[in-house]
Amino acid sequence: MIVKIKGIHKVKMTLADGSKETYYYAWRGGPRMKSAPHTEAFAREHARLKDKAAEISKVMPTLDTLIEYFTGPEAELNPDFLALAESTRVDHQYAHKLILKEWPGLPLSFTQAKGFKGDIRKWHRSMRANPRKADKALFSLSKVFSYAIENEYDGIDKNPCTGINRLYKGSRKDFLWTAEQIAILREKLEAHLLLPFEIALATGQRQGDILSMTWKQWDGIYLMFKQSKTGKQLKVKANPRLKALLDPLAVTNRDKIRVCLNSRSRPWTKDGFKTSWGKAMASEEINIKGVTYHDLRGTFICDRAREGSSIEDIARISGHSMAEIKSVLEKHYLATDQGLSDAVIDRMQKNP
Predict the structure, then answer these.
(1) Whole-angstrom distance, CA of residue 6 vs CA of residue 327
(2) CA distance linking residue 314 with residue 322, whole number of Å
(3) pTM higher than 0.70, yes or no?
(4) What distances in angstroms separate CA 158 from CA 57, 69, 76, 143, 162, one per listed residue?
């Protein structure tokens, strides 16, 4: 009878005499199995090792323990974890599921032993098909260890993620929304997507802060934001186009609390908006590729620079520090944005 068990870690080895052999481990980082694979004896041994690991984990800290130290228990989250932006917490929690699926019940001492960095590198590279996902997972694991070191958690002296290179090499320097693309969306985009698009284009704010806006943040002239990532308070005057969208909705949707709603007049979820936005961009009517909703922030910065706004002015309205604005313009946009270069020459000609 062939017995299949999930979670078994299989390693192919080349022995000293050149022959090949496959070693089986109860789980990645777990003990080596002695019984013949796919047999009932193998299944019994695996169950015994899992039970033993569960007993050990009751008295010995595990990777699960360390992650809970970072987040706090579900019933009472760690204040340091709660201080992070909601989107960041969600990303960490998703990554933690990936981590614990890979190393369930792993004794904490193993994470400090030689060789564990190699295991992390293999795990990280196993997700190379989705490099941003892989890097976010690696970052979350690294954050757990760095938090433990910072707070002098007993038994954690090093971060095994240190020195592992990220997989994602992308840059957004060539990804700005063009006037033609913006015109297409203004003509073709459905109202429930057009509003968050126009708010992002007119204010340069993050997607999460836009989707969570309530009507208390609109006074008929200004949009008020408290940025979830920085905590900064901002007051941004709506341009005429955005005001023309908001004013009627302020009357008809006041009982809805949220400003931006989906097609069913319900508050957006992060995944729901991502899915709807992606479908709209890929639709035959719109068919826009190469730019993302996030790129509207960079487009906002460059549009203000083209208009002659100073770094200080852009920082004041966007919530970025002046150093961040300067970095964005210099490293990601200025070098490839002909419009910005032309604007400089135009201003020079006006002021000979």
Answers:
(1) 48
(2) 8
(3) no
(4) 21, 16, 27, 12, 9
What digits encode the pLDDT tens for the residues 284-309? Answer: 999 999 899 999 988 888 888 878 88
Rounded CA separation 94/91 (Å): 5
Q: Which CATH architecture has domain 179-350?
A: Orthogonal Bundle (1.10)
Q: Please give the pLDDT value at position 194.
A: 97
Residue with tokens 């073709």: 188
Q: Tokens for 46?
A: 């695996």
Place of tokens 């008295």: 59
Angle ∠(190,194,197) on CA atoms, nearest 5: 145
Task: Give me the CATH code for the 60-170 domain, please.
Answer: 1.10.150
Please write the tens of the pLDDT for every residue from 168-210: 776 555 578 999 999 999 999 999 999 999 999 999 999 999 9
In the chain, where are the structural domains located? 1-58, 60-170, 179-350
Q: Which single residue is written with the structure tokens 């961009």?
A: 281
